[in-house]
Amino acid sequence: MARGIPLLVTTPIFYANAAPHVGHAYTGIASDVIARCWRQQDRKTFLLTGTDEHGQKVADTAAKAGVTPQAFVDQQAKVFEHVFRKLDIGFDRFIRTTEPDHIAGVQEFLQKLKAATTPLGRPAVYQGEYSGLYCQGCERFYTEKELVDGKCPLHNTVPQQLVEHNWFFRLADYLPIIQKAIAKNELKLIPTTTKQEVLGFFKQGVQDFSISRERVRWGVPLPWDPTQTAYVWVDALPNYLTGVGFGKDAKHARNWWRGDVVHVMARDILKFHAVYWPALLLAVGEPMPSTIVAHGFFTVNGQKMSKSIGNVVDPVDLIAKYGVDGTRYLLLTPFPFGQDGDLPVERFTERYNADLANGLGNLVSRTTNMVERYANGVVKLAKAPKSLAKTRKLTETFQFSQALADIWATVTWANQAIDKARPWDLAKGEHATDAKKLAALLAELVAQLKEIAVAITPYLPETGATLTKCLRQKKIVKAPPLFQRVV
Ligand code: MSP
Fold it and tell me: Which domains are present in the chain?
């Protein structure tokens, strides 16, 4: 990714039918880490997130709650936005698909689609009849082959058989272009397992898809056929464009969309992003995103998080116990980015105490304490013994858990260096060499902490800022505890 080019980082827009859980939080935090890492290097960066508020599922949930869909999503969007702010996710815009500028943008997008001709000279949009197995939970049709024991693999429910007259998008005509772009890494799919998975979709064959719904009233009306509303995905995907001004402020939109565009998500919605979305963009004459990043899908106690199972982990509870930075750390460390896994919630406290309270927290508190007591708060400039230049590369390439492991190896090293050097003995020593050794050690420790502060800032923004401030003082004083132990 070129530094001079603006960078747009996006999360999926989340369904506004339930409160955010740690899965959503993870995507938000991961996207925020990327954005912060580049901002730290003065790159122009825009972080976009928000809520996906149309579709039958949302309308049904609102009906069950006895409120209008609009009142319902207004409430839900507030919750999402609030939790994301609490998690220190520094988004530039929180987009909602019921906002008038998004709706207008989607309609413009649809008009362009309707007017488009495919590379084979056919209309990109045609009328057809669709009969299929529809999972309302996913808001999508499934093929028999995709079902598990006749049920939706995600919701474990039997899909409905539906027949509809819809408008279709001629996806087939765009597939060779997309496949080529992926093969040549013009459309980068990260990590490599993601690329393999997407190339697998092409092998299996992908069908044209309907872009409208006859039955769904809670959606954006098709401009040329108001008896139909836009299929919820065709309403949602263009948020990445409308979020930066498409349909309202063309210059702003162009500035961000012609730069690097990185879509972050979990694997569950890869096909929509790596196949459907690039094809829709090609049809309307917009560039494809540069990068699609898919992280793993987490289970809790071996199962997909769901209210009915009762295994939903609420990020707000984690924040209450471990703080914002503690939560960010605990969510980002368990797995290499891209790998699925069971969230080790029962080991969170142990990990928090070991790595944050006793690890970094202790290192900062003993170092600043010694600098205050033994050196009057002043140390010479020194070089950090362990360079963390490599960790930035790891962060830029989405290897978050490895980057954090590297930083924490240095934290451990520094704590051990203190134990070994026994500065408290040096301070009592009568030889001039003891005083020299002590001064050199303290200077190196401060330099190391400064380097650690820079490296952790994208991950733990508050801790990074506190640490930086504390080390920048003319006279360093003992830092307040960064992390309280949790029992
Ligand atoms: N509304 C669509 C996305 C439209 S984007 C144009 C949607 N919403 S969702 O609320 O279901 O969010 C899916 C995303 O939430 C996943 O891709 C992932 O980013 C995040 N996660 C939801 N559950 C998750 C886990 N259990 N584990 C990891 N990430 C999870 O799909």
Answer: 7-296 (3.40.50.620), 347-471 (1.10.730.10)
